Amino acid sequence: MVERLSHLDAVFGSLSDPTRRDILKRVSRKSMTVGEIATQYPLTFAAIAKHLNVLHRAKLISKERRGREQVVSIAPDTLLAASRYLETYQQLWEHRLDSLARFLKTTSTNSKGSR
Amino acid sequence: MVERLSHLDAVFGSLSDPTRRDILKRVSRKSMTVGEIATQYPLTFAAIAKHLNVLHRAKLISKERRGREQVVSIAPDTLLAASRYLETYQQLWEHRLDSLARFLKTTSTNSKGSR
DNA sequence: CTATTATTCAACCATATGGTTGAACGATTG
DNA sequence: CAATCGTTCAACCATATGGTTGAATAATAG
Lengths: 115, 115
Description:
Chain A is of the alpha+beta class. Chain A contains five helices and three strands, in the order H-H-E-H-H-E-E-H. In chain A, helix 1 (7-15) runs antiparallel to helix 4 (45-57). The longest helix of chain A has 35 residues, at 76-110. Chain A binds chain B through residues 6, 8-13, 15-18, 21, 24-25, 28-29, 74, 76, 79-80, 82-83, 86-87, 89-90, 92-93, 96-97, and chain B through 5-6, 8-13, 15-18, 21, 24-25, 28-30, 74, 76, 79-80, 82-83, 86-87, 89-90, 92-93, 96-97. Chain A binds a DNA duplex (30 and 30 nucleotides) through helix 3 and helix 4.
């Protein structure tokens, strides 16, 4: 099921860093080991490991040990939840705009161009 | 069109705080003054003003002076951009899952009636 | 002009974050 | 077992963040 809502802190916090978004992009195309990921950036191995921890705590990725390597994969459900969250806002303001449109329509037929 | 990509840092960073998400929720229903918003939280006026600044820099809200008050409204386009961004990830992994499904299908027809 | 209301700015504090280096751990290879 | 490869952990540093209080500004009311 969808996690407690405060989980969104971690999800959006993770997404606020460009390196982490880039890691997520790469991993969403193809699962990669921690080492493979680390070579793609001008940062230390440890820095990348930290970013992966952040993504893991937010449940945006999953890790699976394969021999001595650790394979990182994307965790689609969490992204879906975040996306759904933003959609609710869209619905809210779309509803508002609709209401405004209706309001303008009814008042313009009613009023004599006041204000 | 859609803002420079580093803008996403600010957008997701803004969304990572529960107070700011709540402000956004309230404002998405109805435009409010800074003062009205501030009374809704157990924080100082200044703290709320800071949160509004963060949201404003991320272009998630807009402010408009009305007399001595400042009216805060939601800025739908930015939310839409963030939502679209997450959707591209969904598409990426959906594509991956589709590919996997096709792969499994073709390999099973190749083999001798497995399953 | 003065007072009042609404908001912003500035200085400060505590904690979180993103980065580093170097040591430690876990699994495989010889 | 020892050596090695891949990864994690710990300590540390600089800067960012979220909060406070108190002073300063902006617009209206008297």
